[in-house]
From TrEMBL:
This is Uncharacterized protein. It comes from marine sediment metagenome.
Length: 309
């Protein structure tokens, strides 16, 4: 459900040299190109990616970050944590929900008692409770969601893994992802579709928004930059010069770093982008689809390129 070229720096190169490798998915499996033989090989993993919607991905360094999202299995505000087990009176039998212990994660947000808000991997699922990989601390009245989490493909190791945080909490449920200024950006989650999040600069596992410093992780809602006013439908970058965020009838541009004086300005309040993949980049502009046709952004303006296409 996605096609993503990866630019690989080949080991042992004495001069700058790279090859582009195609990574794609189908039927829940990930496939990568063997650049020597130009064949697509399945990536062996217990994890899957969603196969009923389009997905987006972004390369940072030599890894590919995949915005796997959705397939909400369960949610509630009455989660009870005891040791490493999660239960809720709203669910009589957890085994009937189709929870995948490899692909899904448990997100604990507003918490009670000594429970620590975080994203937890799942060890096992039984009728009476879900066992987590680590103990969040005992507490009741916890808000929880069980859904797919973002994935990381490492072509060197040939592995597909969940994106985990060494600090803070990785956002889940986000269909939009891109790399900008050394950060991984995620956005468009159903529970807050206008909000963007970005990792610590040069640290894809740093998601603690409470830290200070110009390289800290940032959430749009707690930043000086702010967020778009409407649900985002697309997000992409033009190198590290600017980042575009769009709804179906608005376009915003971020310039600079969100933790170091960056600015988010609105380019249009009438024109937007219809879908996460309805755009392309040119040498000095980008083009995109809106309901009325194709548009072109060039030199800070949005111009009508062709109508009724």
């Amino acid at each position: 459900r996605f096609l993503s070229p990866m630019v690989l720096a080949l080991p042992g190169d004495v001069a700058p040299f790279s090859k582009t490798m195609l990574v794609t998915s189908a039927s829940g499996n990930l496939y990568s190109e063997n650049v020597s033989y130009s064949t697509l090989n399945i990536v062996t993993s217990d994890l899957t990616v969603r196969d009923d919607v389009s997905l987006t991905a972004a390369q940072n360094g030599q890894k590919l970050y995949i915005a796997d999202y959705g397939d909400l299995r369960a949610e509630g505000t009455n989660g009870v944590v005891s040791g490493s087990e999660l239960d809720s009176a709203s669910y009589a039998d957890w085994t009937t929900l189709g929870i995948d212990t490899d692909t899904d994660v448990v997100v604990l947000s507003e918490v009670g008692g000594s429970t620590v808000a975080d994203t937890y991997m799942i060890a096992s699922v039984a009728a009476g409770a879900i066992t987590l990989n680590s103990a969040p601390g005992d507490g009741s009245g916890n808000t929880f969601r069980i859904e797919r989490g973002p994935k990381v493909y490492d072509p060197d190791a040939g592995t597909l893994t969940l994106l985990t945080a060494t600090a803070g909490q990785v956002p889940t449920g986000c269909p939009l992802i891109c790399r900008y200024n050394g950060r991984i950006f995620l956005a468009g989650a159903q529970i807050a579709p206008h909000v963007w999040y970005c990792s610590k600069q040069n640290d894809e596992q740093g998601w603690d928004y409470s830290l200070t410093g110009s390289q800290r992780a940032v959430a749009g809602t707690n930043s000086d930059v702010g967020t778009p006013g409407k649900a985002m439908t697309a997000m992409f970058t033009h190198s590290d010069d600017y980042l575009i965020m769009a709804s179906k009838d608005e376009i915003y541009r971020m310039r600079g770093d969100p933790a170091f004086g960056g600015i988010l300005g609105r380019l249009s309040s009438l024109i937007g982008i219809v879908d996460m993949n309805a755009w392309c980049i040119g040498p000095a502009a980008f083009m995109f689809c809106r309901p009325a046709g194709i548009q072109c952004h060039f030199l800070c303006r949005v111009r009508n390129y062709r109508k009724n296409y």
